[in-house]
Fold this protein.
Amino acid sequence: MLSTGCWQVIELDLSLHSVYLIVKTIPAYHVLHGGYILLLVMSMSPHELWAQTLQEGPPVAPPPPIEEVETARTEYRTMLRRRFLGNVGKVLGGMVVASGIVKHGFDVLTEELWQPEDARIDPAVGAENFEPGGERWLVFGGFGQQHSHNAANELFNAMGKTQPVDSISYPSHDFDADTLSPVIRRYITAHKISKLNIVGVSMGLPIALMSLRSIEQQKVRAAKSERSIAGLLLPDIGYMAGYSSPADMTDAFAAQGELTNLVETFAKKINYEPGACGKFIYSLVDGPGDTEKLEDISNIPQWERHLYDSFNETTNGCPPAMAWAQLVNFLQPFNFESQSSDYQTILGPNLQFIYVSPTNSDNIVDDSNAIQRYKGGLKTLGINRVHQLSSGDVGHANTIASAIAMGKYLLATSFGLDPNIIHQLNNDQEDTNA
């Protein structure tokens, strides 16, 4: 039980929050400013807050033990922060809904920036002339990446251009695994692929796996209804590689705290068609430190710069409907470890899984947790050939460094070298470069 003095501190916070709820009914700037004032007060230490309490009212009981105050304030501050971020989204979304002019402007911006494009698969530069049949590599891009041409070119070159590498481009509109599966099926048939290797850049691996699962599920449904399964047969999957790929939602955005949960509920809080407006709102809070910049309205230059940067991020090449689909239709429902049985007939016992991650801190994906979840899921499928490679001190899912690490590994193993020796050679090279 908390002491009386501790509850008095909480009551002060609640009264301040009541003022904030009244303030949020006025224009957006004042809403944010009110939130800033509230968070400023909430950032006081317990003794500072207690001193402020003594100045504003009659004498009260001595302050409660510091541990009780800290625990209560931490819990309340977490709740308040989540509520604040939710209110930011509601306010900005409400502004767009209420203002026809602003909404029309965002709609025009959406149409001009992102022309309709469907999914397609293209070869890496130089891989166009490989004969049909045999083994091919297919690269899936990560979050916000519509095209993965560069990642495919880098891997093709890193492997000495010995095997064909292709890249899949996502549609600019809303899509899911059933959207990509026919594109992949036509690709497999056209190239007469006998062995397919998949590479996922960050979120690209969940997208790849869910797309292959969609094809397998279509085959099962066709067989049950006694329809032809021609064109629904998957080739052997030889390699499955992930560049800092999350194994489920909890691995992603590891350094961004509440954003993981906010993404899950964001669509319910703001009813909108994915476009420039939604992308702008997301851009305001998606990066490390972004929410703090948005809340710190006392620093006007920084606050205005953050709005400017968020707008620039809004107008980059990433179609908002596509990015939204990646989060909602792929990352949110994906959990490889708990869903591993879905891949029993897709991933055979001879599969080799490669996980490439940086040696320094990855502030986007919790790599150590992700690799363990992938290992757990693969173990249930009887797959034990798991290799973890270092891309060096390069940060999250660097496609150049990851391709180089993959190329060294694949070329060396093709000559029968021990994978452990290759991994040690990679580490020695990093030490030499340092």
Observations:
- Confidence is low (pLDDT under 50) at residues 1-50, 254-262, 270-274, 428-434.
- The beta strands are 120-123, 134-140, 165-169, 193-201, 236-243, 352-357, 386-390.
